[in-house]
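Loading example: each entry is read as two labelled lines plus one structure line.
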Amino acid sequence: MILQDSKTLLEVRGLCATVNGIEILKGLDFTVKSGEVHAIMGPNGSGKSTFAKVLAGHTAYEVTGGSVLFEGKNLFELAPEERARAGVFLAFQYPIEIPGVANSQFLRLTYNTVQAQRGKEELDPLEFDDFVREKMKLLEMSPDFLDRSVNEGFSGGEKKRNEILQMALLDPRLAILDETDSGLDIDALRVVSQGVNQLANKDNAIVLVTHYQRLLNYIVPDFVHVMDAGRIIKTGGKELALELEERGYDWVAAEHQATSQTRAAEGVA
Amino acid sequence: MSTVTAIRRPAAGYLETLLTGQSQLPASPLPRINALRAEAVNRVDLLALPTLRDEDWRFTDISRLTKQSFSPALSATHLEAADISHFHIEEASTRLVFVDGLYAPQFSSATSAASNSGVLVSNLSTLLATHATTYATVIEAHLGRYAAFRDNLFATLNTACLHDAAVIVVPRNALLAAPVHLLFIATQKEVVSTPRCLVVAESGSAVTVIEDYVVLYQPRWQEEAHFTNAVTEIALADNARVNHIRIQREGAQAFHIADCAVSVGRSSNYQSVSIAMGAQISRYNLNVLLAEGAECAVDGLALIAANQLADTHTTIDHAQPHGVSRQLHKCIVGGSAHAVFNGKIMVRQGAQRTDSQQSSRNLLLTGKAHVDTKPQLEIFADDVKCTHGATIGQLDSEEVFYLKSRGLSDSVARNLLTYAFGAEIIERIPVASLKQQLEQMVLEQTSSQS
């Protein structure tokens, strides 16, 4: 929802980043205010997932230019775990399997770590068990998933539910969902989307990184951005997603190029 | 210009010191034991301490062991029951305790064949003093039959000192649900002990045995060494099942060398989990011989740091058809520690339809940590299914990032992943309280390394 008196949560200016020396993000601008839902769409290789991982602090990505302020503070001064504690959450496109660590143990450890950092109450195993089971109902997850190793042997849909469960527990200010819809059948998509919608409120914001318009039927964005070659080249409302579904991405790039050329020509004249 | 390094020889009389008092051992009522001792003593003269030039010891430098001299405990350390109660395993119904190699009846709960279960759990010398005739046959049939000592100096030294030993005999079709705990406590510095175990599972029987090597430090001896030189023999008749859990959690300066020989009869099942956490140098040889249709699962975990060395040598011998073996060996190596794994799977001619899987997985926590792993398959049959493999790696950076992105600090994330790597083996221990205790120890050890 777009609110009158919302606060700016995330302010990205001219962000440039490389992977293995190859520049992927090339001057990206992006602003998110509390209460908003943003969708970032774009063709493969446009830099969507790179952007998500740079925000979470993945060390394989090197920031070479620009700035990112999260609630007014320089995000790059924070280690990944400090970003998580401050309220940045990334739902992974490919959640990692951790054999040997019980999901319940992992969830409680992360929950209590973040709670402690925020000066809030930690829960003992019994209290946590009740708490997490409530959250699991939201995602129609069986309690069996608590006893299994983290993501090990989970189906694609189960892994994504487990990601959103973590989002529910960590209660982030800014949640970035990287291709959360990929690999989901229609029922799982509905459940996961309902979960996300219930977690959205006026104080937090959600950034959906997705290929497909389908997800946006369930989680309705306030803004749709088109990313191409490491930059956001077009921003519109939810209807832009439908147009993209119909016409693809090429026209946006062409339009962007034409505008840039006109501007350049006017500049010369 | 070249530098010539002479191979260090131990001081003259080194082996004699290890055998101090051997000649004063009381004669056993069982002629076989006297014969074994005599044969071993003669053999010691013909064997040399292994060096890096021996193929079986090429990665394991024991010069630190041979620099120090050790002799058997002259007297038992006085202990109170409370001193050792924290070693108890609640599930265990019977327990034999040996202190510096000497049987400690006051802490043990031996059972005789006259007990309800019919299972014998006893100390060899005590048993023979009172019931020599009853048990002569079973002991003669098995003791010293599996752990070949002729070319193995350490097993030979152990055999020369045969006296106190844990003996478990599970009669035909007896199923012992509660584990038997064999607890070997080191309490004295500069002492060598020669623990010995014999487990006989008669046909159709089942038993769980926990072989547990611990240290009880005297206050000022924390940094002192002791030497444990153990031999275990396990015989499974047909259709028997033995769960064998072996925990080596000796002192940081200890030396631990052990040999275990297992004969698995027709359609029997041998499951083994061995954990090596203690000792500055440890070596465990495990040899499993499989009869027709026999199965074994041989799993191991070495968790070491600082300048520890842990060496595991295993042989699984598919001597006959239709055998199944599964082996997962893991090493977690921190500091400048060194882990060695040599796992040989032998499939003899005629051992058709053998099904064998072996995996060696190693986690190096530091740049100075070192692993030598050598999975080996030797196949002389043509209709078999055998796989093996080895991996050596560091913690996966994607896994670390995943945990950090959930708010966990770098060190907590790494500890959790290290713990998880080891937990896969510990999970296989079928004794809940021991599993829990070990998980806690692994968690503490991995945490202290960061």
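Chain A is about 40% helix and 30% strand.
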